[in-house]
Write a sequence for this structure.
């Protein structure tokens, strides 16, 4: 009895299709090939059945193993129901896998099966903690949408070339001990690659900022500013923040940085944060008018549109963490050490952060003023 056709011999089907050989001609070639290896040739009838696709079927659906419970179509329906349930919940209660399965017509499966089906469909849906963001009411979202609708038509390099300075203030913690530095690093941790049973392992636990708050050693108020693709302003402030310090800031360090890096101009354009007690106070407004400074004002609850908030602070902090300081450190030494990586921040880094602002403005318009997925 002649042996079955090998995978290489099944490729001879192209002689019948592409080269348009008759079944007899294909049979003749196959017989000659097998004769050279002293192997018995199959019958001509078997060759005809192969060429008609009646045997040796290739590309058929696999019928072995466990059958899939969820089809792609059912997974898409479940994903649509998931979004609808979350929208109806309005953030007031949790939506679990059992709720999604119950609401989807024609689906009966377990939570693990649903999760596995989503993963096979390329949907990375799993239980995650809700992210904490400031609540934005209708007025806030409308304000964000209005200003971003105006700004989205600006050139891509507008905030690099036309805006003379982008400023923001921050209360920076000063860790004076090694334990304080470790505590602050643990607070910035967002998650681990772990199993569910490893949740209480000391290596996977971080202290609660509310229940286990620790004083790092002190805080310092500072104002920073970027001009084009570099950080040009890093000023530490004395006392509490308010209208008078903001006015002094505009009359002193801000004006000096503008004249140094933009030269003498009729007027300067500054992008500033929404700060009613500082930047938008009457004293600060008077100081800007006297020094011919006009402003582009960010709306309320919009740190996602300030390059210092969404990029510069983190870039400086990452460079501080890499220094690996041990032991105690005075406040003045920390302030001097903090200033160096800030003012030496590579231009490529600052430029990429500034150029990301137009993308965020467009994302706010697409989100109708709500939170954007770029954070």
């Amino acid at each position: 009895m002649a042996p079955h056709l090998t995978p290489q011999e099944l490729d001879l089907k192209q002689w019948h299709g592409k080269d348009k050989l008759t079944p007899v001609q294909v049979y003749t070639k196959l017989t000659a090939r097998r004769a050279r290896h002293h192997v018995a040739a199959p019958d001509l009838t078997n060759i005809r059945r192969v060429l008609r696709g009646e045997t040796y079927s290739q590309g058929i659906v696999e019928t072995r193993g466990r059958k899939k419970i969820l089809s792609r179509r059912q997974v898409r329906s479940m994903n649509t129901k998931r979004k609808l349930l979350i929208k109806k919940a309005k953030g007031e209660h949790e939506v679990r896998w059992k709720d999604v399965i119950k609401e989807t017509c024609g689906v009966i499966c377990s939570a693990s099966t649903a999760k596995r089906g989503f993963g096979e469909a390329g949907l990375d849906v799993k239980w995650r903690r809700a992210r904490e963001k400031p609540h934005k009411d209708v007025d806030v979202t409308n304000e964000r949408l209005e200003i971003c609708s105006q700004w989205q038509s600006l050139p891509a390099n507008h905030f690099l070339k036309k805006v003379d300075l982008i400023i923001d203030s921050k209360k920076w913690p000063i860790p004076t001990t090694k334990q304080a530095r470790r505590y602050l690093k643990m607070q910035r941790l967002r998650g681990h690659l772990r199993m569910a049973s490893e949740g209480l392992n000391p290596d996977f636990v971080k202290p609660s900022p509310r229940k286990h708050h620790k004083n790092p050693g002190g805080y310092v108020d500072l104002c920073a500013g970027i001009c084009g693709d570099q950080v040009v302003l890093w000023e530490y402030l004395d006392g509490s923040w308010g209208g008078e310090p903001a006015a002094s800031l505009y009359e002193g360090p801000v004006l000096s940085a503008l004249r140094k890096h933009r030269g003498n101009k009729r007027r300067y354009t500054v992008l500033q944060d929404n700060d009613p007690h500082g930047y938008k106070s009457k004293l600060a407004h008077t100081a800007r008018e006297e020094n011919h400074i006009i402003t582009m004002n960010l709306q309320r609850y919009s740190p996602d549109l300030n390059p210092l908030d969404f990029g510069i602070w983190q870039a400086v902090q990452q460079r501080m963490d890499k220094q690996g300081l041990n032991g105690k450190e005075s406040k003045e030494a920390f302030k001097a050490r903090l200033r160096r990586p800030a003012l030496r921040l590579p231009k490529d880094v600052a430029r990429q952060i500034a150029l990301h602002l137009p993308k965020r403005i467009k994302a706010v318009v697409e989100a109708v003023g709500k939170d954007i997925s770029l954070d």
Summary: Residues 154 and 305 are 15 Å apart (CA to CA). Residues 7-51 form one domain.
